[in-house]
């Protein structure tokens, strides 16, 4: 069995390089500081295997550094104010970060495969003397040999180093990167197998469900770990569940010794992952590449709605057909909503709600509208960024900036419906239908308000500029600035929470209900009179 | 030599090519003509073994491209109609990649790259990202890539679109020379003036069938018209279509 096909390996490097180039192109990769950075980190066709992977490794180190930079800050702060048991936060973080490595790997695989397919990278060589098998193998190699493993190893190492530097967990230096590599090797063959099984493209719904489940799993584990009150409790938990990945790795770090059972479990996971990662692309008939035609058969846009709604539906369809953006939109919204949903299943929370006076309980559950508002500010720009390659088309159409804002607000609200309806159902069953309706109304009204405000702000920066509709061109500072400005109304809204204590709960509840009314009515009436 | 025997092919249930028989001989410039969707690109994709015929048999210098596409592709220099090229590579890097893909020995790679860089006036762009080049320059890089391994078969899909008159003129001369050297040349084009000047043999496709083949004169005679454009309109039964288009555009 040929473990690595050299020809496929070389092609995989080109695939990766091309995908990065195309995504960075709008940021002006050909000139300036970005060009310098790109040259520094972008794998070059002439790089050998070592140099190529080193570049990814360094990128991973930097990302890991950014991910764990808060650790020294928090540790210093807690030392200053004398808070005990900071170590619980660190362990919770280690568990979360290890689970996040699964998400990162899944995302990496999806993004690489989506890029290769959607950018048609393989079509550029299908007339050259390469067999289909080599090209398919190249696509699968792109994920792991094309830098994915090095990236995660680098990330794991810098996180491990920071944890070691500021805690007594010396084994973190080895076990975190080891765990990252293991999660990569475990997830990679599964996703490759699933994609091949579905003829090159995991159905968007399945892919989304996997993504959402992993996000929910991470948050649940994280919140659960935070509820531990002592180190002994954590140790007991890890001791009981050390046979499950990734607890064996964390167990070794926390116990500060190479405990044989945990080592056995860790090595078993690593070996199984390694073997599957070698066997699946080499032996199993890989089928990752699919025609670029739409995967949403029978799902098309008819112009039977008012103009603005039709324009909005166009965005809904584009986002649903764009597997990466779709996961970004729902991944972030679900991540923000999960703690609220989990709380509703908590018997203590339910007891409190049921024990409260009716209006007071309505007010408490409707505070979820804040989460909805923040989510909308964070995810609504995705509907602008899906225009990255299409804004030239947008400018050639008779549509004004205000209409773009309205149509994208509508699109975003339509896309939010599965989540708000889910929360409505859960709260209706667990609390009462009135509570369900109250949450549903406030969640949507605040969502619409936030989308409208945030999109207006974003568009005022990019409207009229060609090629400016991407995260890269907008710049991090400007993006953060828009987010802060968009969140100002929410700050004013916090007054309603205060009024909850000052006035009667009914007054606070009415303020909460009335606050988003003007913009919601405006958006909805524009839709009707359009 | 490329032979098609009763070839039916397509992408969906409705075939694009419907039982075509063709012999594309070496030593001639063969020009493939036909309206959009008539099957020109499909014909080239069949020769390259990118798609397989539903029925029928294809032989490229005696080899079946559907069973041994790699061997067939090694003999071919292909320029696709779209910009199927890696934007993230620099011009020299891309040509280097193509040269190695076609198995040119390492010691000859640089020499071949220099030759095509000079031939297609690309020397000054060799360090540029292909993504940063104009459409015309990208087409020139693709032409350079098709010529780099001195193939025995040249398949050029709309090679004259987007390139400047100097290169177009040179390309016509080169294609003539290559055909004299005994290479098999198949060019698809919509520009009838070029077909008229270039073609030793015209193959006119319409609705997936060969409706005429032969020299320009033979095709014109078959259509009983005075020129190639008229012959094209007659043989593809497009006269009414043209009237319809004019009427629609004039409102």
UniProtKB/TrEMBL annotation, chain A:
The keyword Membrane applies. It comes from the Archaea. Keywords: Membrane, Transmembrane, Transmembrane helix. This is Uncharacterized protein. The keyword Transmembrane helix applies. It comes from Staphylothermus marinus. The chain crosses the membrane at residues 56-75, 81-104, 141-166, 172-193, 205-225, 237-254, 261-284, 333-356, 362-388, 409-431, 437-459, 480-503, 509-529.
Automatic annotation (TrEMBL), chain B:
One of its GO terms (molecular function) is ATP binding. Residues 2-232 form the ABC transporter domain. It comes from the Archaea. Keywords: ATP-binding, Nucleotide-binding, Transport. Coiled coil: none annotated. The keyword Nucleotidyltransferase does not apply. The keyword ATP-binding applies. InterPro entries: AAA+_ATPase, ABC_transporter-like_ATP-bd, ABC_Transporter_VariousFunc, P-loop_NTPase. This is ABC transporter ATP-binding protein.
